[in-house]
TrEMBL record:
Membrane topology, as annotated: Multi-pass membrane protein
Localisation per UniProt entry: Membrane
Species assigned in the record: Plantibacter flavus
One cellular-component annotation, GO: membrane
Protein name: CDP-diacylglycerol--glycerol-3-phosphate 3-phosphatidyltransferase
Annotated transmembrane regions: 20-38, 89-114, 143-160, 166-188
The family this protein is said to belong to: Belongs to the CDP-alcohol phosphatidyltransferase class-I family.
């Protein structure tokens, strides 16, 4: 059997699978928790706690859909594209909401959004050639953002005191630094890959 016949015999993985459905659900949940957070002007009431819980559940499901996709051989190009988009929608929505409430400087939100949107746009530009999966530093950045935003959303300062705000600031600073570092790493990797492709085509 030739290589072409072997590849043709391999079953094509459908984009309509459980991991992709979970990823789409994460995107849909973003405006829901944003509404819950902004509905009572960010007070420390029940809606604020529910918004924080919903964000944690949505962002934690990233590991669930990834595990299911890998363990059941359901990894698709669509999933590789939607997964980082879902992360960006969730984290971006949370940062915008926190800035609207005056709890996070707008420059932090802008820096993060510029990095995330820029890389997403680049992924779509090169999608005809190849799908760019998330690198290890990008995944570490996503984890740091998830932890920092979760702490910022949950009003733990009501229970533990204002010192919690300092802790939140430290975690958010780490997340921003990793966001910038991973963005630089992505650009460097993309440039090297582009140069390598040009050398191969010569």
């Amino acid at each position: 059997m030739t290589a072409s016949n072997a590849s043709a015999a391999e079953p094509r993985i459908s984009n309509w699978n459980l991991p992709n459905a979970i990823t789409v659900a994460r995107i849909v949940l973003a405006p829901v928790f944003m509404w819950m957070l902004l509905a009572d002007d960010g007070s420390d009431g029940a809606l604020r706690w529910w918004a924080a819980l919903l964000f944690v559940v949505a962002i934690a499901s990233d590991g669930i859909d990834g595990h299911i996709a890998r363990s059941r051989n359901l990894v698709t190009d669509l999933g590789k594209i939607l997964d980082p988009i879902a992360d960006k929608v969730l984290t971006g929505g949370a940062l915008v909401a926190l800035s609207i409430l005056g709890e996070l400087p707008w420059w932090v939100t802008i820096v993060v959004l510029v990095r995330e949107i820029g890389i997403t746009v680049h992924r779509f530009i090169v999608i005809s050639d190849h799908v760019v999966a998330a690198a290890w530093m990008g995944k570490l950045k996503t984890l740091a953002q998830a932890v920092a935003i979760s702490l910022a959303l949950a009003p733990f300062w009501v229970l533990l005191g204002d010192w919690v705000l300092w802790v939140n600031g430290v975690f958010m600073t780490i997340a921003v630094l990793l966001t910038i570092a991973s963005g630089i790493d992505y650009v460097v990797t993309a440039v090297r890959g582009s140069r390598a492709d040009r050398q191969v085509k010569r």
